[in-house]
Hints:
- The chain is an alpha/beta fold.
- The chain has one domain (2-309): 3-Layer(aba) Sandwich (Rossmann fold), CATH 3.40.50.720.
- Helices cover 43% and strands 17% of the residues.
- It has helices spanning 11-20, 50-60, 74-79, 81-102, 133-148, 170-179, 197-208, 226-237, 267-273, 280-292, 295-309, and strands spanning 2-6, 25-30, 41-44, 64-67, 105-111, 153-157, 159-160, 184-187, 191-192, 195-196, 214-218, 224-225, 244-247.
- The strands form 4 sheets. Strands 3-2-1-4-5-6-11 form a 7-stranded parallel sheet, with helices on both faces. Strands 7-10 form a two-stranded parallel ribbon.
- Helix 4 runs parallel beside helix 5 (133-148).
- It is globular, with a radius of gyration of 19 Å.
- Residues 305-310 have low confidence and may be disordered.
Amino acid sequence: MRILVTGVSGLLGLNLALQAARDHQVTGVAYAHPLRGAPFALRTCDLADAGQVAALFQELQPEAVIHCAAMANLDDCENHPERAVQVNVDLPYWLAVEAARSGTRLIHLSTDAVFDGQRGQYSEEDEPNPLSTYARTKLASERRVLEANPGAFVARVNFYGWSMGGQRSLAEIFYAALAAGKPMFGFVDVFFCPLLVNYLANLLVEIAGTRLSGLYHVFSPETLSKYEFGRSLARRFGLDEALVQPVPVAQAGFKAARSPNLIMRSDKLSRALGRSLPGQAEAMQGFYQLWAQGHPQRLRQMAASAAAGE
């Protein structure tokens, strides 16, 4: 399958492209942050430009597009709301239009943050109530993508993993601090259902080969607090659990509001695939194994070689 992956320098985009390239013909697209030594083709493109999107589709004729690119830093979105709309709403809309025109399979990524987190146990049928600019733009993108392309698959996700920069996911931030013997806040009142990015990548590539369409939750069926997540990571890596300090999220001083209870139901996708999604212990073991196998170093080398070539 010819797969086009956007946001290929990001946490999800890079890990997905690397795994998909084992069995498929992959082209990764980045707006900036080039990389070197990737086992797939690369393009630099401003996907917010509808003309560039159309030209890219005409040149590559992808069978599937997995749209991972996004402006995902919540506080950056608060500070630059117009750019957030351009990247998180307009860009996926043009991809959806072009995918519908060309008959290309489209998978678009959204977020659990479209909910306010007041009660948890959210399904795809529950009414969202986004609290931040980021969450509002992602909800708008869900609706515009499916209006333009009803055959698209929209996946709400939350994930962690290893990235080129080493600071793109909560797990990396916990690991870096704890490995250096530094304390880290762990929020006792924020709950989530994250997937290891590599497991999520495999799921998305699998889904690209199906006819599933519409809105789906793609989360672990198991929930834990950010505090429990940090302690779980410390245990698996043999680090000091006591460095993870239990605190309420109100102490963090974030500019953008966070949703506290994001317990998500993923049974709709489990039924469609005929199996359960990975649990938390399995995912943390996978995160550890990637570290043991040198995966973080390989990713950093791709970034370093790119910088050296500039």
